[in-house]
Amino acid sequence: MIRILLACGVGMSSGFMASSMRKSAKKQKLEVTVKAVSKAEVMSHEGEFDILLLGPHFAKEVPGFQKAFPNVKVSTIDPDLYATLDGEGILKEALQLYES
To answer: Is the full-model pTM beyond 0.85?
Structure first.
């Protein structure tokens, strides 16, 4: 089971993306969980995720989260996928990140 946490400013956009990603994972019969939170809530979910994807506007904060979660793959969501709420594309990126 791959556990993905999405984080944006207040969790609204990431909530829509998480829903779309869950639908895509279900179609593909993948064992994936996707949860969305605000960026401020990330630290309270320590140990609950394998991948952390931040909204593209938080790119400068990736190194800090990588340091805080050394065993987690941390990245930002592609701005084009984020803008279109492309859950399938974001899921694909997340799985590639997980396997890298």
So the answer is: yes
